[in-house]
Amino acid sequence: MNDGIRLRYGTVAMLFHWGIAALLIANIVLGLYFADLPPDAWKGELAQWHKSIGLTVLVLSILRLVWRLTHSVPPLPEDLPWHLRMAARLSHYLFYFLVVAIPLTGWIMVSASASGRPTVFFHLFNWPHISVLADLPRQQKVGMHDTLVSVHVVLAWTAIVLIPLHVAAALYHQFIRRDELLLRMLPYRRMRAETMR
Ligand code: HEM
Fold it and tell me: Which of 38, 57, 102, 152 is the most exposed, having the fewest neighbouring CB atoms within 10 Å of its CB?
């Protein structure tokens, strides 16, 4: 804190940000890899890891949203042009949406799967499937499952496009605008307080 204005993200915000980012990227790679494998035990094992990591992202993202709604975060630099301000806000809202919607559609998808295959959370326990979907007639399940696969894939690809843009924006701020926005999401880095207001 400085003069009542928070200059950096706190420890909890950083843990949420980097933890969810790492799990999200790992799950994108895992999803792209396992989805095209021939159906065998190895694919089944990877699918369980994918589902477990994804459900972890869902829980963390909901906690993060609650945390975000109840805590203040550092403001954007005051001299940031309105279009960059809009782009930053939009991309942040889109990320909040994606980190909930991607795993949620995955959970709905497997709940409606006609295979009835359980979701075993990190080999520990069976994660419950959504019972209203699991109890639907087979024909309805097939339709819903197929639609949800498409939605899940489109949302995942939206994240695949958005992540490099987000990284590029952070680098632009750090090395071209030199306003140190990146440093405030990194631990143990000193910032030039005068660049932030
Ligand atoms: C961080 C969260 C998640 C991310 C980033 C993610 C990403 C992906 C990606 C990139 C694919 C491959 C798409 C393609 O074929 O092009 C995929 C497929 C899949 N995901 Fe996820 N996913 C997440 C969470 C989940 C969850 C929570 C579940 C289920 C509980 C799930 C179930 C599946 C299944 C079953 C497929 C294979 C779909 C098919 O082709 O039949 N995902 N996911």
Answer: 38
What CATH number does the domain containing 59 carry? Answer: 1.20.950
43-99 tens-digit pLDDT: 999 999 999 999 999 999 999 999 999 999 899 888 899 999 999 999 999 999 999
Tally of domains in the chain? 1
The answer to whether position 175 is within a domain reads yes
What residues flank ligand 1, with Cβ below 6 Å? 24, 27-28, 31-32, 35, 47, 50-51, 54-55, 57, 102-103, 106-107, 109-110, 119, 149, 152-153, 156, 159
* Cα angle value 78/79/84 (rounded, 5°): 95
Domain that holds residue 176: 11-195
Three-state secondary structure readout of 17-31: HHHHHHHHHHHHHHH
Which of 55, 113, 152, 157 is the pocket-test mutation for ligand 1 (most atoms within 8 Å of CB)? 152
CB distance 74 to 9 below 8 Å = yes
